[in-house]
Automatic annotation (TrEMBL):
The keyword Metal-binding does not apply. The keyword Coiled coil does not apply. This is Otopetrin 1. GO terms for biological process: inner ear morphogenesis. GO terms for cellular component: plasma membrane. It comes from the Eukaryota. Its main location: membrane. It is a multi-pass membrane protein. InterPro entries: Otopetrin (IPR004878). Belongs to the otopetrin family.
Length: 577
């Protein structure tokens, strides 16, 4: 009976208020756990690959919006005007300024924490070169402001706001490149990834705007030249001059000087976008401490032949540029023929130099550097990608020469040789640069280690102390065999290769500095108006004016970027050899 009543009491306690309160507390705990799990899932770090893909799509669509506006603007219709494009680009620059300011403020608050930095991203000499290009871009903005002041009564205010915002954007971006481009971001990765990719595609859009403005200027000059020669059936460019008088006497100087500064502004933005792309790839990356170290700079004795030949190439290029610009108005065929003869000689020398560099690498057994390096990977991809423009242009010229009749210009065979050499030169130079970037030179520590652990001692009659320890069962008689006095012991192959490494490095440095100066020369010519592809008329007869002009508008900017990027890569090779 007592047991039964006890059971009844237990059963009653199960449904008593105390037990119901405990069950409600357990259910509330379950709800708290559910909400905490939901909070964790919502605030959890977004998967890196998804964030990378999403941010890349965001940047690509930004670029495509801007390019769509540019294509509509190229038709000179009444619906889309230059003010609309500049307003869109100005808004993108302001967004980038806000992001850079937020990033720098956050870095300032975390000054006590030492951030991880990629030693290969944005070397000091690249940032110094970009600073010089930025100064020229600021001069260009000053000319734009002066132009707006002269015509402020009849042009949109956007044309005055744009250069001011661009100048502020340039100054802030150079500061960001100097102090933060090496940062490896590990906090707020998704937000920072969108900020960096926004900066990348903003600079790409500014590059596209500069390329199209420069191309329009060259096309107008080309149409004017053809009209003077009697080609009246070509459509003339639309005049975009303001419909009022300038209030100052220097407006024409401002508008003319802009086009001489466009090449520097274009190269500035494309290089900044490449550096920011490396920063974007470094977000969330785990650095390899062994490969992420700075190489000490070494002296370069024996540099004589390479710099002398490079300066000769540079001087000849400037001479060709001046003579071409003077002669193309009077005798286009003579000017084009002179350029192709010069190009054949220059490209032949560059092919021989690059081939000699590859031969030196075959003779010198330097190990390959297989470590992760986003900067080097991007350099390789940009070299190969930017080569496509000039290759397309060259093969179009080859097709035009093959389809030309007997009445075609006499320089067509020189053009054929020039085009084929241009394809070959870029192939061989790309091989030389890529192999140089992926070769790892032997450190002094590696050489020392080789000497300590080799069987043959480094000095005559001295026993190698690395083998002096007597092993189990070893006798002093056996140990004598390690002496250099035993003449039947041969020198290892590795030691033979390290006998004269200095001479091979001198050859590589001379080759690199020569190619460096040649690429600068081949950048100067098209950047400042020496573009025989517009003036020869050979390709235009085969492909038509519209198609050939479209090919040139795509190929020439890519070729200009290739030459300047080759200059940067060759300087890196020069420091590495």
């Amino acid at each position: 009976m007592v047991e039964h009543s006890g059971l009844d009491i237990m059963c009653l306690n199960k449904y008593s208020p105390a037990s119901s309160s405990s069950s409600s507390s357990s259910s509330s705990n379950a709800e708290k756990k559910l909400f905490s799990k939901l909070k964790v899932s919502l605030t959890k770090k977004y998967p890196q690959k998804n964030a990378e893909t999403l941010s890349a799509q965001y940047g690509t669509n930004l670029l495509l919006i801007g390019v769509s506006v540019m294509l509509a603007l190229a038709q000179h219709g009444p619906a889309v005007k230059k003010e609309h494009l500049l307003a869109f680009i100005t808004a993108l620059m302001l967004v980038q300024l806000v992001w850079m300011l937020c990033y720098m403020i956050r870095r300032e608050r975390e000054r006590g924490l030492v951030p991880e930095r990629d030693a290969h991203a944005g070397t000091s000499w690249i940032r110094g070169g970009l600073t010089m290009l930025a100064l020229l871009s600021l001069i260009m903005d000053a000319f734009r402001i002066g132009y707006f002041v002269g015509y402020h009564s009849c042009i949109s205010a956007v044309l005055g706001v744009y250069p001011i915002v661009h100048a502020l954007h340039t100054i802030s971006q150079v500061h960001f490149l100097w102090f933060h481009i090496k940062d490896v971001i590990k906090k707020y990765e998704t937000f920072e990834r969108f900020g960096v990719i926004h900066a990348v595609f903003t600079n790409l859009l500014l590059w596209c705007n500069g390329v199209m403005s420069e191309a329009e200027h060259f096309l107008n000059n080309h149409r004017r030249r053809l009209t003077a020669l009697g080609y009246a059936n070509l459509s003339t460019g639309v005049c975009v001059c303001p419909h009022c008088n300038c209030t100052t006497s220097v407006c024409s100087m401002f508008s003319t000087s802009l086009y001489y500064l466009y090449p520097f502004n274009i190269e500035y933005h494309i290089f900044v976008s490449a550096m920011l792309l490396v920063m974007w790839k470094n977000i969330g990356r785990t650095l390899d401490l062994h490969s992420n170290r700075k190489r000490p700079s070494t002296r370069s004795p024996g540099l004589l032949l390479g710099p002398m030949l490079g300066l000769l190439a540079l001087a000849s290029s400037v001479t060709v540029l001046v003579v071409y610009l003077m002669q193309v108005e009077k005798s286009p065929q003579a000017a084009v023929s002179m350029f192709y003869c010069y190009g054949v000689v220059m490209l032949s020398c560059m092919c021989v130099a690059s081939g000699a560099g590859l031969l030196v690498y075959r003779l010198e057994a330097w190990p390959m550097d297989t470590g992760s390096n986003p900067s080097r990977t991007l350099d390789t991809e940009l070299l190969l990608g930017s080569s496509l423009g000039s290759w397309l242009m060259s093969w179009c010229s080859v097709v035009a020469v093959a389809a030309a009749g007997p009445s075609s210009p006499s320089f067509r065979w020189t053009c054929l040789v020039y085009s084929l050499l241009l394809v070959l030169e870029k192939c061989v130079q790309n091989l030389f640069i890529v192999e140089s970037l992926y070769r790892r030179r032997r450190d002094p520590d590696d050489t020392l280690a080789t000497e300590v652990f080799c069987v043959t001692p480094p000095y005559d009659g001295i026993v190698n102390r690395g083998y002096e320890t007597t092993l189990e069962g070893e006798t002093p008689k056996n140990r004598v065999a390690f002496s250099r006095k035993q003449t039947d012991v041969t020198l290892p192959v590795g030691n033979r290769l390290n006998v004269t490494p200095g001479r091979k490095r001198q050859i590589l440095k001379n080759i690199t500095i020569f190619l460096f100066m040649c690429n600068i020369s081949l950048w100067i010519l098209p950047a400042f108006g020496c573009r025989p592809q517009y003036d020869s008329g050979l390709e235009q007869e085969t492909f038509g004016y519209s198609v050939w002009t479209t090919v040139l508008n795509l190929a020439i900017p890519m070729n200009l970027f290739y030459r300047m990027h080759s200059v940067a890569s060759l300087f890196e090779v020069f420091r590495k050899v």
